[in-house]
Write the structure tokens for this entry.
Amino acid sequence: MPIYEYQCGQCQHQYEKREGFDAPVEQACPVCGELARRLLHAPGIVFKGPGFYVTDNRKNHEWESAEKEAKEEKPLPEGTSEVSAKK
């Protein structure tokens, strides 16, 4: 059974109640007896399975080749900077 959260329209009292899916949306507040309405919240989302991360859908050779290029860069000759080497 789900746990629903309610808020009273009169006294603003909030409370939780474990009820079935067929429970009424409005009910009496346990503090003042006025009408309390069920609050709606965004559901929690859990991503399971492949395809949710950047690395899941990429082909291996794309990122492996980029890693190899970065590792294979030759060191610059002494006395040169990165700017002058690119010119």
Observations:
- Residues 60-72 form the longest helix (13 residues).
